[in-house]
Amino acid sequence: MDEDECRFGLGHQFLLLIRNVPAHTLPRLPGEGSGWRRKIMVTGEVVAVPLADMSTAAINDVRKFDYFCDAICDVYAGVQPVEPDDRVFDAEFKAVALSQGVLASIASPGHMADRGALQLRRRPEESLFLNLSEFSAYGASHVGEDWRVAAGRPFLLDNARPFHLDFERERRMRLYSLRLDRQCLGLSIDQSVIAKINHAIATTELGRSLELQMRLMCRSMGAGEIMLAGTMSRPVTALLARIAENVAAGPSENSCLDLATIKAVARQHLSVADFRLEDLARLLRCSARTVQSRFAAEGTTFGRWQLEARLDLVRDRLEHSTFSGRTIEAIALSAGFRDASHFHRAFKKRFGISPRQARH
Q1: Contacts of 196 (CB under 8 A, 6+ apart)
Q2: Residues 324-348 pLDDT 10s
Q3: Residue 163 lies in a domain
Q4: Which end of the chain is more exposed for a tag (fewer CB within 10 A), N or C?
Q5: pTM
Q6: Strand, helix or coil at 239?
């Protein structure tokens, strides 16, 4: 069995299954120095390589944020987190080299992150990041557009271009990122291609398949099943490449006419109180009249369907133990309701019982 060795800054030795991957191609880790070694066993096909497992729990509060930034800087190359003003930065960071890139996870207080002109100039880097925020929606400015990315939806970032990410400061975030070589998509990537891929992820059946597969991959990593996550990275990358191929080929004639797809996209925005028919049509890249006609064929309207979908979402959450610690009003707000009295009336009209009765 051939062996190759390189340095490893976390003070552990791992036996790793890997094929044709020189040691110098693996990401350099925070704190790597001459005193540590990482052993790589070359056999079979790539499965998974643990790279980092970091927590700020034992770090002095004043140094936690800087320690976190140092830990993530080699995977999130040239990305600058912005420290929140009002809380201790308790964070965890893990990274695993998979057969299809590097999969990393961050659990931390919600914060902003930037890759601006200064970072692009100081550290040019051309990886792609396929991100998934497990629990919370977030804002993103990238490739000339402002996005509201739903929780659980993959979103593609081009690290060769500037971006700004804004996570809710009121809650903790858990972000998974699959870092990929841009050549994995097999086509020339410009600003418009990234935007079209993200629109396709949000609006197509292939995008839905990518979302489901990436969620499974991320949950496997979260459960410590990194070999399983490594296996799942292959179909994730294959689905992303297929979406890119379809984008390059141009839109199909009826790409936005499938009502199931329209509803799937709209469901991802139920938490956005002011999400309108026009916003949905813009995401689908078709007219509001076209969208409304698809709902009319089912005997309803977008507004009526949206209200019923939000009420169904609230009832599901009221009956689920995960939300037992949250108030009824907070659950309603998370489903896009602004007015409490309107919510209570609509809920009782649809289900014949009050929200409090539904909870019990």
Answers
A1: 247
A2: 889 999 999 999 999 999 999 999 9
A3: yes
A4: N
A5: 0.65
A6: helix
